[in-house]
Here is the input.
Amino acid sequence: MEIQRNHSTTIERYVSPLPQVEEIAPAAIQLRPASFDDYPGQTHAKENLKIFVAAAKNRGQPLDHVILHGPPGLGKTTLAHIIANELSVPFHSTTGPSLDKPGDLAGLLAGLEPSALLFIDEIHRLPIQVEEVLYSAMENFSLDVVVGQGPTARSVTIPLAPFTLVGATTRLSSLSRPFLSRFGIQEKLDFYEVEALEQILVRGAGLLGIQLGAGGARELALSSRGTPRVALRLLRRVWDFAEVLHAGIIDDRVVREGLQRLDIDSQGLDRMDRDILTMMHARYQGGPVGIDALAITLGEERSTIEEVYEPFLVYCGYVSRSARGRLLTEKGLAYLQTSQNGEPLDMKI
Ligand code: ADP
Here is the structure.
């Protein structure tokens, strides 16, 4: 069956919301907005955070701990940087999976400057023993450490400088209740409106010296899956086409041609998205199909389907979740039937 490819190369998709190597280049770091005013979109979360930051500054106290949740590429890490900048406090960053021993976290916390911001990305992947060390650190700014072994073992409390923990997660539901309850501030990030993405693209193009016309910005924004990371990546790729094949200016025509070459349609859906929808239709008669069955058939990790592909398909209204599994909606079927680039629906499975 043609569509049963192995898609474990997720990271290579042009529309992947996951970071790729280009994002660590100096130019990309310079693209990261440094203040709330430079950060378009996410009005709800941003306005709340502005107030919490201003209140903490007025009181001269560290900001309460923050959890930012939502699909990848929407600006959680960027917001954490902005919070530190706006508070004028040092920023330290780590990830859940890299803190595999309680001692690693204890060392990190003990070394923080007063009021520093510690950002933990993928915080849902912290091992439970490490998470438990965080409980007293978050609540009382202290560490409970067991010294010695056997009958002579005793618990020692080590005071820490007050700090703010900012955690980011794509899976809020994976965090335990006791952990979640220790975050005084919880903000959800949603897919961006087209206008906000246009602003991000125009700003990014300005910083990178790219000639991006209004039509080009609009067309790119429409195809960026509501995700700034995807928007900025498509901007770079379309820039290549514009420089080599055209006079360097990106207008709507250049964008359309570039996206066609990248096999991305005008809504930002690529072959993998179309494969998922086609699979649901052709093999599972539109569902309900369990996420595990879908993952096996597509040769992908369950978590990748859940956290990377599915959120945008649900956001488009093409897939819905039910207690019995995932369903291809009527809108999803209509999309498949009109998709110029889709696989034929009458294929043999
Ligand atoms: P996340 O942590 O949610 O995966 P990031 O904060 O790493 O996302 O953002 C991904 C990319 O998109 C970065 O290059 C970042 O600079 C850019 N970005 C995200 N949100 C915005 C925004 N509101 N304005 C401008 N650029 C943004």
